[in-house]
Amino acid sequence: MARQFSAGAGRIFHSITGLFGRSQKPLGQPSATYWGRAWRALRRDRAAMAGLAILALIAFSAVFADLIAPHDPIHVTPGDRLLSPSTTYLLGTDHLGRDILSRILFGARTSLLIVIAVVSLGTPIGTLCGLVAGYLGGTIDTIIMRIMDGFMAFPGLILILAIIAVLGPGLANGILALGILVVPGVTRLVRGNVLAIREELYVEASRAVGAGVWYIVFWVILPGTFPILLVHLTLHSASIILVEAALSFLNLGVPPPTPSWGMMLYDGRSYMSSAPWFVFSPGAIIFLVVLALVLLGDGLGDALDPRRHGVH
């Protein structure tokens, strides 16, 4: 080990064992072997692979909705209102004569874009707060975590409704509110992980060769948080979809006529007895997507568990 230190930081970064196994990657970064074993473990989990297949199909439908959808999702045809499923309209039509299947496909695009936007907004902020709080500790840690505790003291939906009440309804404000809801959970998760690994040997080695605080935080510790963060975001995406559907149901989310699964449930609430397919179709797709995310998240949690790879 003394020879490695005398050779300089470059050799240490490629020689000291990281958190996730015997890696030749930079310090703290899960190795290709780690990810390969995790993928093989995930493939053996039939429930997780079923969830992944469902999500892949939904994502494919969302991306290529323009090519797959049999009808215009916003075109109103009064003469075809509330038609039952048929060869022309596979899932029937709504109260305005719009094709439900087409609206579900384009609604998948809406949900996918919202999830991506919310995760892209909330995750970097929460990750940064968690890294700073966990590594620096002291007063900074106390201030950051008390702020996060304040957000988590409110029920999630109530907090979102309060933010929208201040900023006004709309897609952008809804995404902002959902993004704020993501931050506290990510912060606590990353902070806990940083507290667990900041005294590991490879972190001490980085300090010993003179690495700066921010280099250690972002290039040594941060990669070690990726697996647990991936599991959390997969599971939390299910909550984002449910909350977005609830906001749209309350007319506080995606504005009409943009297709939204929650808005479809809202429109169909008055026709549950006369046109049950109107409500059943969007409700079924929400259930299916949330179930797929939960199955995949549980499978990822098992596959990415370091103890499965001989790390203790």
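Above is the first protein from milestone M3; the second protein from the same milestone is given next.
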Amino acid sequence: MAWTELAAATLPGTDLRLYGAEDGVYMIRANGLELMNSRNHASEDLLGRMAGTLARASGKRDPQLLIGGLGLGYTLAAAAKALDGIGCITVAEISPDVVAWYGRYFEPAIFTERPPTPRIVAADVASWLIDAAAASYDVIVLDIDNGPRALAAESNDDLYSVEGLAALHAALREGGTVLLWSGFEAPDFAARAERARFAVTCEAVAIAERPGLSHYIYRLTRS
């Protein structure tokens, strides 16, 4: 497939580039490595659907969901569909350019059913969590890397540290959940999460469109 570069953005230590193909497919690369594309998005659909379902199951009249990372918008769209009109979704995206790409390219071209207007902020999710009021969210989704190891931005390593996990813990309401997608098993991350007083499970997930890759969802629950 022939890709045409459409736009570029620079974060500290990271070179983000947006590409488009003649058939309308979009792709984002970070430092030359593919982060995501609009042809294969089953993992984002699954993660968003799981997050929205958990938020609905919280029993809250107005469940609050935070998504770290906007990407192409598929996680947001799936979460909004699962919430089915209730609650509120906040998306923290570290790159203002990615937010602009979403408004210019992704939302009008990809989504025929647009989610109710979410709150999209150009902010590092780690900094957003520190500034947020305590016990604000029922579900937090981390969709910013290919697992608990910095790829899209160097600052993400702080989020996966014990201190970052403690900030996640403080931002959750009682019984709330953090969901993190990973392309690899990370027992060291799970151990840090337990030190931050989370109950941790890891589920292997099969994705038919990417059978050769490993897929795991880490679920961190504030008990």
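Note on the second protein: The CA atoms of residues 60 and 87 lie 8 Å apart.
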